Amino acid sequence: MAAKVDDKSSDIPERLYDSTNNKTYKRMRFFGKGGFAKCYEIIDVVTNDVYAGKIVSKKLMMKHNQKEKMTQEITIHRSLNHANIVKFHGFFEDSFNIYIVLELCKKRSMMELHKRRKTITEYECRYYIYQIIQGVKYLHDNRIIHRDLKLGNLFLNDMLHVKIGDFGLATRIEYEGERKRTLCGTPNYIAPEILTKKGHSYEVDIWSIGCVMYTLLVGQPPFETKTLKDTYSKIKKCDYRVPSYLRKSAADMVISMLQSNPENRPTIGDLLHFDFLSSSPVPMFLPSSCLTMAPRLELNETVDHDNAQRKPLTEFNGIKDDTRLESTFLKNNLHDAITASAQVCRHNEDYRSDIESL
């Protein structure tokens, strides 16, 4: 992806020197900015290892009283180590900036995926949501609430593995039953108990995962409106619509997470047992072409939820053992097994039983 133009990088040197570890990084492409931070590709001049450099202006940070928040972000993020969390490699500072060295996710965030694709298939959604849950489960197991889970904070590496990033709003639960009261989060993904200031905990992340899953499958956030006031009103009333085309297993999982009462939402561990994830094999791999187009239809994914083994392509093409097609609808009306597979999305039991016997 082409680098964005950064017209105000004069306050950031081209070479960044970490005196503590005696490392020098060369500042390369500008990726974007958010809050008080700018993000660049940076390269270790000795090893040529490439990282993402999050650079925070001290001047802006102090002006907006964000020093404590920055300290907490670094403290929390540096303590984490999980395959689905953006890796924290280190930090250093000079008179002007704080520099945070992070794992580089070259496929950017899931927001870019969403903008290109608008909606993704349930097959792909299962792949992404499973990894998001694994990352959030690690956080919750370590008493950390992210509080800002959204597509823009879910990054993808070259293998399209999900990496949860940006711990600027994250907090640690200090004692059992503690409820946080800080107003924080992104408008479209913010949980109702944060808006009503009733106190919140891990359940806000479950709500946000529900918003993420809905957005991936439907193409827009569940409570999105033209104004912030209307969005917050819909969130407080839990006023959203589940499209009829969503399959029951997907709809059930979204609805369970988008409950007004946080006590009624499943825990992060509970989510792994929902039919959406447990009744079909979770894909272990997606090709990078999925950034721009849907993957080829997985026949077994839709038809046989109990069988994770893919049949040989020759079998689908009718080359091998075509005698198993009995005198049913498919044999009488369709010419070969590959034509039959095109009907896989139909929910008629005649189609389903015939395809399962291929």
From TrEMBL:
Q: Which Gene3D superfamilies match?
A: Phosphorylase Kinase, domain 1, Transferase(Phosphotransferase) domain 1
Q: Which InterPro entries match?
A: Kinase-like_dom_sf, Prot_kinase_dom, Ser/Thr_kinase_AS
Example GO CC term: the record gives: nucleus
Please cite one Gene Ontology biological process associated with this protein: mitotic spindle organization
Give all residue intervals belonging to the Protein kinase domain.
25-277
Q: MF terms per GO, please? A: ATP binding; protein serine/threonine kinase activity
For the keyword Transferase, the answer is yes
Q: Does the keyword DNA repair apply?
A: no
Query: Which UniProt keywords are present, listed alphabetically?
Result: Kinase, Transferase
PANTHER family recorded for this chain? SERINE/THREONINE-PROTEIN KINASE PLK, SERINE_THREONINE-PROTEIN KINASE PLK1
- What is the name of the protein in this document? Protein kinase
Q: Which organism is it from?
A: Musca domestica
Q: What is the lineage of its organism?
A: Eukaryota, Metazoa, Ecdysozoa, Arthropoda, Hexapoda
